[in-house]
Amino acid sequence: MSYSYLSHLECPQCGEHYSAEVVRQLCTCGSPLLVRYDLERLKTEWVKEELSNRNPDLWRYHELLPVVEKEHVVTLGEGMTPLLALPRLGEDYGISTLLMKDESLVPSGSFKARGAAVGVSKAKELGVTGLAMPTNGNAGAAWALYSARAGIEATIVMPQDAPKITRSEVALAGAKLYLVNGLISDAGAIVAREVADKGLYDASTLKEPYRIEGKKTMGLEIAEQLGWEMPDVILYPTGGGVGLIGIYKALQELQELGWVQGPLPRLVAVQADGCAPIVKAWEEKAERSQFWPDSVTAAFGINVPKALGDFLVLKAVYETDGVAIAVSDAEMSTEQEKIARLEGSFICPEGAAAFAAARKLAQSGWIQPEDRVVVLNTGAGIKYPDSVQTDPPLLEIGEFI
Amino acid sequence: MSYSYLSHLECPQCGEHYSAEVVRQLCTCGSPLLVRYDLERLKTEWVKEELSNRNPDLWRYHELLPVVEKEHVVTLGEGMTPLLALPRLGEDYGISTLLMKDESLVPSGSFKARGAAVGVSKAKELGVTGLAMPTNGNAGAAWALYSARAGIEATIVMPQDAPKITRSEVALAGAKLYLVNGLISDAGAIVAREVADKGLYDASTLKEPYRIEGKKTMGLEIAEQLGWEMPDVILYPTGGGVGLIGIYKALQELQELGWVQGPLPRLVAVQADGCAPIVKAWEEKAERSQFWPDSVTAAFGINVPKALGDFLVLKAVYETDGVAIAVSDAEMSTEQEKIARLEGSFICPEGAAAFAAARKLAQSGWIQPEDRVVVLNTGAGIKYPDSVQTDPPLLEIGEFI
Questions:
Q1: Which end of chain B is more exposed for a tag (fewer CB within 10 A), N or C?
Q2: Does the beta carbon of A138 lie under 8 angstroms from any beta carbon of chain B?
Q3: Is A151 left (phi over 0), alpha (psi -120 to 50) or beta?
């Protein structure tokens, strides 16, 4: 029994293999790298029944994670988030089994914590002492916090318009924080220069292979929480798309292990209609997306005009007979309120986008009433105070309602 | 086997018993009521080993909770929050085992979700259709959200200065929201009138018996997570004090069941020096506290000038050889930053108060280096954006660091 069954890194584009024992960013061909495990050996040495006695966090799947030595794990207790039944909202959509995977219940209030936990842990194991990344806010917050716990110095660059609270998280964690009067792609250019100048570890989305492994655990948890039966549809708000790539990878690994059977769920990539490069590519049956100019949406986390892993997202959608679909900011806002009123959950705008897409796909018949549907809420609504406007009556002492 | 081993309600002041099958607020003597279970029967019918196969939420302890029928449970997946080792902070304090029970990982980002989950579930079971409560913000947010999920109409009154984000949560959930230009005690007067006028269920702190039961699960979880061994010290930021009362009650019930042995942990009630009625009462060896005039602290959740359950908090502290201690807002702020930098966690000011108290008690020798110390962080720092000031450099496109 090993703590991890990590084998090597593989390029999904040119097929090249690399050692996972040293720092490696992209493939020499420019593609992101994927982590491979010795699943054949794992199959003979591990049974899923062992899981029930493990802690309810993502490290319960340590055999399928890249950290080789347990003492390198940097954890804040992330993972095993609720898979909640939403019966009243489901009725409203006309879906009998509507489930929310609620990623608001993780450190920093965003699913970015999963990628950061595994990414930072592996960086620590590889001896990294300084890293840098561009972010739309939440990923930077998570990486800054986990880096602090790991004793790694982080440099974070985010758009000026990123959620304000994420600035506080980065600064409080003691990371170096810079704003840019532009988009995440502009922040990326600044980080690239800083990485080259200072010899830092580049923690940009998919420029290191391990963040996907953290996100992958969402797929592992969904399968375990459904008793190792797969749902019919999974909807995911897609910016960089790492979560969707990760969920797809997780389910494939579980298939190889023989832990799940039958067809994979249809994967749905949800975008905002103000930034929908993946949707456009999917409509054109293209393999890659094109840069989306002048992108704009209130769902800041999915304002990503061109994702490095776009071809992996599109592949996951094509191969599972999924779809890519865009929704408007107004639809998100309506859906956010609907979910709070019917189900008592204050979700983030990106999560609301995925729910709005579920509603549309149920209306169009693409989602059938008997489908088992899982929607990812990627973060807590409380990180987005401006998404709700209130104007309650003010009483003076001695006044009554 | 019953889902719940609920027996009856009991007055801790005059000893009177009441049925738990109908709505009951306070005892006729004015005291809060406590929920009692048939622990003798439970002892013979349930073993703690059964827990390992249950979901990681607070309903895993349903035998020790007051909801009789499983279908009345209103859940958003709350509970089984991490008990995190903080080795670097512990070293800074000179404590070898410093643990944080991290209540930021619950719905609405505050431990108030526990009380709301159990309180609202029981209200639903009792047939309640409308409730009202005063709040310093977080409890109101949690009760509004769970009430929405339960289909109960909630009326929430909070001070104008309560954290802004909690207004959004209440409003989005569709509850009736009112602000008062005063303190939680002023909000309480407005709620009392509304309850009397409209015949609503009074969900004010300790005016219904079930919120304690939700909070109690923090104590159950700490015991389970430590392998049914008790820690030496538990520190808790104390406003209304329901959590401390609940933890004390939980550990007593576990003692009666024979699941834990030996002395109870020393319980520490932590307050802000701008609002320290419990600390003053403890210093005077009094049974009850007195109203604290002109109370003020940035840790808004513990700005409670007079708690209805003060005598229960003081009893828990006295009987476990604990202490009550106040810290300054400056100490909280310093500690909040320290924890983020050393351990990567962005905690709330109330949680920071409890950590600041741990530091002081370790310095004074009241906490010994070998003590196993658990500190409650009662909520997510992201709910308090104003607790951190940042002024990062702004780069234009084309500029570099």
A1: N
A2: no
A3: left
Which residues of B fall within a CB distance of 8 Å from A109? 104, 109, 380, 382
Interface A–B counts its CB contacts (< 8 A) at 234
The three-class DSSP label of residue A68 is coil
Instruction: Say if A258 falls within a structural domain.
Output: yes
Mutual orientation of helices B112-125 and B138-150 as an angle, nearest 10°?
40
Going across the sheet that includes B34-37, the strands are B17-18, B6-10, B34-37
Scan residues 45-74 of A and list those with Cβ closer than 8 Å to B. 52-53, 56-57, 74
**Which of A111, A121, A168 to mutate to probe the B interface, most B CBs <10 Å?**
A168
Question: Is A26 near chain B, with CB under 8 Å?
Answer: no
Q: Has residue A19 been placed in a domain? A: no
List strands edge to edge, sheet with B394-395.
A201-202, A130-134, A153-159, A176-180, B394-395
- The answer for residues whose C-beta is within 8 angstroms of residue B62's C-beta and 6 or more apart is B3, B4, B70, B73
Look at B181 and A394 and tell me if their CB atoms are within 8 Å. Answer: yes
Could you list the residue range(s) of the whole structural domain that residue A242 is in? 83-110+210-385
Residue B343 lies in a domain: yes
Number of domain units in chain A: 1
Half-sphere exposure of A140 (CA within 13 A, CB side): 33
B149 with A390: Cβ contact below 8 A = no
Residue A401: partners with Cβ closer than 8 Å, 6 or more residues away: A395, B155, B157, B178, B190, B193, B194
Alpha carbon distance B108, B120 (integer Å): 15
The two three-digit tokens of residue A201, written as one number: 């570890």
Tell me if A291 is assigned to some domain. yes
Cβ-in-10-Å burial (0-12, 13-18, 19+) of A360 comes to: middle
Whose CA is closest to B117, among A345, A110, A337?
A345
CA of A398 vs chain B CAs: smallest distance (Å): 8
Amino acid at B62: H
A155 contacts in chain B (CB < 8 Å): 401
Given a contact cutoff of 8 angstroms between Cβ atoms, the answer to whether A121 and A74 are in contact is yes
Looking up residue B103, the CATH number of its domain turns out to be 3.40.50.1100
| B362 φ/ψ angles, rounded to the nearest 5 degrees | -70, -40
Beta strands B176-180 and B153-159 are parallel
- What is the identity of the amino acid at A202? D
The two tokens of residue A224 are 């375990």
∠ CA B83-B85-B87 to the nearest 5 degrees? 165
Q: What are the chain A neighbours of B100 within 8 Å (beta carbons)?
A: none
How far is C-alpha B147 from the chain's CA centre?
A: 18
Alpha carbon of A283: minimum distance to chain B alpha carbons (Å):
32
Q: Report CA-CA distances (Å) from B387 to B298, B330, B347, B381.
A: 8, 11, 10, 8
Residues 108-127 of A with CB under 8 A from B: 108-109
pLDDT (tens place) for every residue of chain A, 401 residues total: 899 999 999 999 999 999 999 999 999 999 999 999 999 999 999 888 889 889 999 999 999 999 999 999 999 999 999 999 999 999 999 999 999 999 999 999 999 999 999 999 999 999 999 999 999 999 999 999 999 999 999 999 999 999 999 999 999 999 999 999 999 999 999 999 999 999 999 999 999 999 999 999 999 999 999 999 999 999 999 999 999 999 999 999 999 999 999 999 999 999 999 999 999 999 999 999 999 999 999 999 999 999 999 999 999 999 999 999 999 999 999 999 999 999 999 999 999 999 999 999 999 999 999 999 999 999 999 999 888 889 999 999 999 99
